[in-house]
């Protein structure tokens, strides 16, 4: 491996450098460095993890069908909600929105051939299935039971089940993967945009991924610190959180939430970006307030580092500190509101096509707005005192994470499915999926607001034997089964599309961003010629603002770089 | 910087009709919320619950208005500006990029609302901090899985019942003996975390006579869902009576662990049906007990030999292991070595159930 | 569009290398920033725990750290930062033998620092798990020491690579990365020395 760099010489830069396509099955589909294949690998893996985590949710809801059920023991119930939450946050939503959508779409949208560090991209992905095995495998020795937040002392060496240590390791590994992906994406978006694509000509999905990558890169190592400290305390008895030896349980909460609050923005910003792409495309008009949306994403990312202690308002922090965090949290409402109003105005005067992607995007606005508004309640310390640790929180978090992130994920899946697979999904099935999911989702989680207000705490496998509480819990549980059923509609639609869906062509939606100007699915080298970009993509009354795209859809043309027998050189290491 | 020729924005009659409908909906919603505040559903049993409810109402009024208008316009625009069947294939919408005046309004108005909310919340929070607490100071300590209360001048522990006199400002110091718990009185809008190694303080004044719930609101293990106690607001006279009874060694009222049988008639311990008892045991008791030997513990001891164990002649209450005393524990609960044995109300048992369970336990052979 | 040439002039620019080196420098700096965050989270933990007890070291009666020894050890480490700087400068000017000399000096000084840490660890009264004092001190300085150890290994690898003519005067990103990492390790130590020995 010590061939001198002097022996390599490439007068062409990155844009002019195309390798021969990989030929073996393993290099094409297993250990691929192609961002599109890696993106699909993330989709498949997160999809499997979502199914498992969803089943755990049904264990929770089945136990809560009646107030003193014996469907599962309290131990198993605690394991179920802890692994459900941990998996959904770290093994589903974050990797799906960054590793899957970010990987597949972002390099195409900036006119690049791949991400900045393709091998690192592959390594980041391959950390991810082992992390999942570690997390789900913890059931074998006793899965963690203290929720996805695992507060010590109950997660510590004296009280925590053995699987809590596996949990630390699993999330640490996911964190390393996530940090490296964040670095990879940030360098890609910063340095590898096509000529002419200034920041204000980038698609808004790219802006969203950029804000997210900054958060992933900076916040995740703070979580690594917290996890490492808990691991050291559990395995080696090193006191960080144990009050008997000078440690503090509150310290864990600070370290954990310093990451986990930015994490919730990692989970929503890419979904915002997806909505910002779908609305203009299906309203046939520009996104309203492009700059406001772009800059508010950055403002939200910055503010997200300053509000973490709003998860700790009942823990006994000093009152003036609580006021500071309260006010900063309320401030975030302003840029978020600007986005929502801008999306609504994007519909004004449009020519709106109600594709499944558009329905999910519209549904997103409704459910995410509800989740955001309940967040205002929680921002005010006096009201949070009543609501913290109750089912109101469970309702809020599901409205923003399911009604926000997951609705955004489905919108994006229906939107980019033709580009990724070359085939169309069935729109009728898609609309049934949307209708059933939207209705069932609201029936499942809306009652939880009232259950929390009226006195049902969270993380309980029993509740008071009262008809009012029983009715709303039963409704939530039955509706959750309908939600699960709606996923089956999606699965059937996806599989039959792959088998025999109509061929999509390059641009079935008439969209204007770069990924729609090349074949579906794209060639492994993405673009025959790197395009030139003249303006932002959202003007529907003007021609496409790109140059150099004339050969992209012409099958007789081969990229010039491939004509010169480029693969004949032996390349070691460097790229 | 490309210049956009700004298209004209025309607000149609449909827009104004929709605005009118949304405004009427809003007014109806606001009226309903104003006349059905939180206290209509959840009584206020402590000061400053009323302050908190006022802030809650403000947020509900504003939040509902925002939701109705935003979702209303979203749905209206989606319908009004839908592509029609006879539109040409390449029909486009109004190429509107921004509307500066509108964007200023929808930045300024939310900012003003945030400022109002921030100021109001801060003032409420300041009032919470300056609540008086001078009548007396008490302690609440969280355990897995019950609440311990200590009163000044009372040299004993009160379990799972917090008696307080109405209209007296009280200071309460809370902590935990093991893991994190949280002391939550929904009717009081009171919540404070019980942190081991830390003492948190809360000040409040009870304002409504009655018995309300104290619920643990921080995950604390196996029986977190059953960690419930009572917040009993009494007149000063009744409170003094209770306090003096406690001082003179009276057992706690039924509902708490360790309660003696003196207050109520002895629960039935004969004439039960062992098969029915087994069915009850298999649904209600197996979470914490096996039918094996004493050391075959889940949470509580194995109960296979509870009535004939030479190594353990006394129950956890310190009384001899007789059917009557077992029935006593089933009725009144007990403070165990780990956590609390729930009483009949928490377990959902009536007298017949207790007799059946005693019969079942009696039928388990000595091993 | 250019045809590959087997031989080329020494001053013909390798655009691919230049661009990827630029990407890698940016990525490496971002990686160092995320590493700073990792240290910062433990520094927060240390300051929080220290602030929660009335005196330090904790518990009362624990012997304080040997600031004089650590100061000398720090000078050794900072000196290695200077030698690394000179090493890279000499490489850039084509002085191979001076590069090696300064690199070896850096490796020796870095190893001496590690030896000094080992000596200090063996003479401290507090233990890693005994109290929050040991927990915070040993975890943070241990993490730093681990970073120094990895750095020494990497410098040795760079030495071997340069002896096998892997890098040229124009293409030497690996050396830049190593130098940057070594300075990062120095900067972290400035913070830790201040926080543990001077504060």
What does this structure look like?
The complex is a heterotrimer of chains A (575), B (367) and C (199). Chain A has 575 residues and is mainly alpha-helical. Helix content of chain A is 62%, strand content 1%. In chain A, strands 1-2 form a two-stranded antiparallel sheet. In chain A, helix 3 (74-109) packs antiparallel against helix 5 and helix 3 packs across helix 8. Chain A is globular, with a radius of gyration of 24 Å. The two termini of chain A are 13 Å apart. With 367 residues, chain B is α+β, with helices and mostly antiparallel strands. In chain C, helix 4 packs antiparallel against helix 5 (173-198). At the A-C interface, helix 6, helix 7 and helix 8 of A face helix 1 and helix 4 of C.
Radius of gyration of chain C: 21 Å
Termini gap of chain C: 62 Å
State the CATH class of the largest domain in chain B: Mainly Beta
> Considering DSSP H and I runs of 4 or more, what fraction of the residues of chain C is helical?
over 70%
Main sheet of chain C, how many strands, which sense, barrel?
none
Structural class of chain B: alpha+beta
* Percent of sequence in beta strands of chain B: 15-25%
Overall average pLDDT of chain C:
92
- The assigned CATH architecture of chain C is Up-down Bundle
Q: What global shape of chain B is seen?
A: elongated
Query: What's the architecture of the largest domain in chain B, going by CATH?
Result: Sandwich
Number of helices of chain B: 9
How many beta strands in the DSSP annotation of chain C?
Answer: 0
Instruction: Give the class-level CATH name of chain C.
Output: Mainly Alpha
Q: What is the chain-wise order of helices and strands of chain C?
A: HHHHH
Low-confidence stretches of chain B: 253-264
CATH evolutionary superfamily of the largest domain in chain B: Cupredoxins -  blue copper proteins
Q: How many β-strands of chain B, per DSSP?
A: 13
The CATH homology group name of chain C: Cytochrome c oxidase, subunit III, four-helix bundle
Give a brief description.
Chain A is mostly helical and 575 residues long. Chain A has 16 helices and 2 strands. Chain B folds into 3 domains: 14-77 and 100-129; 136-247, Cupredoxins -  blue copper proteins (Immunoglobulin-like, Sandwich), CATH 2.60.40; 274-363, Immunoglobulin-like, CATH 2.60.40.420.
């Amino acid at each position: 491996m010590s061939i001198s760099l002097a022996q390599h010489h490439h007068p062409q830069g990155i844009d002019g450098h195309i390798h021969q396509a990989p030929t073996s099955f393993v290099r094409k589909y297993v250990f691929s460095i192609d961002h599109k294949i890696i993106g699909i690998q993330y989709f498949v893996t997160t999809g499997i993890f979502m199914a498992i985590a969803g089943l755990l949710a049904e264990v929770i809801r089945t136990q809560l069908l009646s107030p003193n059920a014996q469907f599962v023991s309290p131990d198993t119930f605690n394991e179920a909600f802890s692994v459900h939450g941990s998996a959904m946050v770290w093994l589903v939503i974050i990797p799906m929105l960054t590793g899957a959508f970010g990987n597949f779409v972002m390099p195409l949208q900036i006119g690049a051939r791949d991400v900045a560090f393709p091998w690192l991209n592959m390594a980041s992905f391959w950390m991810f299935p082992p992390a999942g095995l570690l997390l789900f495998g913890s059931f074998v020795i006793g899965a963690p039971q203290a929720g996805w937040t695992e507060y010590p002392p109950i997660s510590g060496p004296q009280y925590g089940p053995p699987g809590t240590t596996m949990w630390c390791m699993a999330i640490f590994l996911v964190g390393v993967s996530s940090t490296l992906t964040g670095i990879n994406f940030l360098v890609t978006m910063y340095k590898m945009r096509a000529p002419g694509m200034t920041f204000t000509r980038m698609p808004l999905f790219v802006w969203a991924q950029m804000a997210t990558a900054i958060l992933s890169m900076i916040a995740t190592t703070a979580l690594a610190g917290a996890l490492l400290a808990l691991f050291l305390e559990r395995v080696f008895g090193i006191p960080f959180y144990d009050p008997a030896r000078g440690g503090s349980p509150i310290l864990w909460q600070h370290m954990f939430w310093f990451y986990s609050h930015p994490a919730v923005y990692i989970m929503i910003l890419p979904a915002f970006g997806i909505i910002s792409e779908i609305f203009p495309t299906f309203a046939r008009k520009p996104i309203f307030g492009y700059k406001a949306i772009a800059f508010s994403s950055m403002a939200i990312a910055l503010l997200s580092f300053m509000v973490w202690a709003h998860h700790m308002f009942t823990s006994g922090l000093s009152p003036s500190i609580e006021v500071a965090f309260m006010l900063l949290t309320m401030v975030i409402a302003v840029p978020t509101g600007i986005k929502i109003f801008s999306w609504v105005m994007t519909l004004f005067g449009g020519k709106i096509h109600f594709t499944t992607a558009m329905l999910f995007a519209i549904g997103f606005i409704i459910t995410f707005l509800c989740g955001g508004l309940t967040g205002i309640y929680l921002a005010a310390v006096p009201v949070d005192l009543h609501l913290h640790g109750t089912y109101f929180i469970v309702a809020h978090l599901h409205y923003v994470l399911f009604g926000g992130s997951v609705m955004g994920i489905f919108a994006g899946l229906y939107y980019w499915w033709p580009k990724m697979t070359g085939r169309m999904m069935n729109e009728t099935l898609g609309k049934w999926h949307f209708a059933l999911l939207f209705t069932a989702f609201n029936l499942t989680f809306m009652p939880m607001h009232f259950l929390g207000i009226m006195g049902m705490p969270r993380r309980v496998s029993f509740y008071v034997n009262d008809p009012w509480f029983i009715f709303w819990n039963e409704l939530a549980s039955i509706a959750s089964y309908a939600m699960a059923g709606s996923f089956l509609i999606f699965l059937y639609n996806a599989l039959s599309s792959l088998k025999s869906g109509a061929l999509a062509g390059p641009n079935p939606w008439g969209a204007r961003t770069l990924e729609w100007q090349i074949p579906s699915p794209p060639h492994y080298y993405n673009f025959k010629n790197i395009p030139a970009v003249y303006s932002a993509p959202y003007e529907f009354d003007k021609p496409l603002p790109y140059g150099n795209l004339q050969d992209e859809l012409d099958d007789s043309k081969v990229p010039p770089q491939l004509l010169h027998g480029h693969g004949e050189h032996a390349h070691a290491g460097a790229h | 910087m490309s210049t956009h020729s700004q298209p004209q924005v025309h607000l149609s009659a449909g827009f104004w009709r929709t605005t009118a409908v949304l405004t009427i909906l809003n007014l109806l919603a606001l009226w309903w919320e104003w006349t059905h505040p939180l206290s209509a559903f959840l009584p206020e049993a402590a000061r400053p619950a009323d302050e908190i409810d006022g802030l809650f109402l403000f947020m509900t009024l504003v939040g509902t208005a925002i939701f109705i208008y935003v979702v209303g316009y979203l749905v209206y625009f989606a319908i009004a500006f839908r592509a029609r069947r006879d539109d040409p294939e390449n029909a486009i919408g109004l190429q509107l990029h921004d509307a500066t005046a509108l964007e200023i309004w929808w930045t300024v108005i939310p900012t003003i609302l945030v400022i109002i909310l921030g100021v109001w919340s801060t003032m409420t929070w300041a009032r919470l901090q300056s609540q008086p607490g001078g009548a007396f100071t008490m302690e609440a300590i969280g355990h897995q899985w019950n609440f311990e209360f200590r009163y000044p001048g009372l040299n004993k522990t009160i379990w799972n019942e917090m008696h307080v006199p109405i209209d007296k400002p009280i200071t309460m110091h809370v902590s935990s003996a093991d893991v994190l718990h949280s002391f939550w009185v929904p009717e009081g809008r009171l919540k404070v975390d019980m942190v081991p190694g830390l003492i948190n303080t809360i000040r409040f004044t009870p304002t409504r006579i009655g018995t309300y719930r104290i619920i643990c609101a921080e995950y604390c293990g196996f029986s977190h869902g059953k960690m419930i106690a009572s917040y009993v607001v009494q007149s000063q006279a009744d409170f003094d009576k209770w306090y003096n009874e406690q001082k003179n060694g009276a057992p706690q009222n039924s509902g708490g662990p360790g309660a003696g049988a003196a207050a109520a008639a002895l629960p039935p311990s004969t004439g039960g049906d062992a098969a029915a008892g087994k069915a009850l045991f298999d649904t209600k008791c197996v979470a914490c007990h096996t039918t094996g030997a004493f050391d075959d513990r889940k949470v509580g001891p194995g109960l296979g030999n509870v009535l004939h164990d030479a190594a353990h002649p006394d129950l956890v209450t310190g009384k001899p292991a007789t059917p009557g005393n077992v029935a006593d524990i089933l009725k009144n609960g007990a403070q165990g070595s780990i956590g609390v044995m729930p009483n009949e109300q928490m377990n959902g048992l009536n007298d017949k159930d207790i007799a059946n369970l005693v019969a079942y336990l009696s039928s388990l052979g000595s091993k | 569009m250019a045809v590959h040439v087997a031989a080329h002039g020494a001053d013909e620019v390798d655009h691919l290398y230049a661009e990827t080196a630029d990407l890698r420098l940016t990525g490496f700096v971002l990686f160092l920033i995320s590493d700073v965050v990792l240290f910062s989270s433990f520094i927060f933990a240390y300051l929080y725990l220290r602030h929660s007890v009335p005196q330090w070291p904790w518990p009362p009666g624990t012997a304080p750290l040997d600031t004089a020894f650590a100061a000398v050890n720090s000078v050794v480490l900072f000196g290695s930062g200077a030698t690394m700087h000179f090493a890279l400068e000499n490489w850039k000017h084509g002085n191979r033998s001076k590069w090696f000399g300064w690199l070896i000096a850096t490796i020796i000084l870095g190893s001496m620092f590690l030896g000094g840490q080992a000596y200090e660890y063996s003479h401290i009264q507090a233990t890693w798990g005994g109290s929050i004092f040991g927990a915070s001190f040993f975890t943070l300085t241990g993490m730093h020491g681990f970073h120094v150890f990895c750095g020494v290994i990497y410098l040795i690898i760079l030495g071997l690579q340069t002896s096998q003519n892997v890098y040229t005067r124009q293409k030497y990103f690996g050396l830049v990365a190593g130098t940057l990492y070594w300075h990062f390790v120095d900067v972290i130590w400035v913070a830790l020395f201040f926080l543990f020995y001077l504060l």
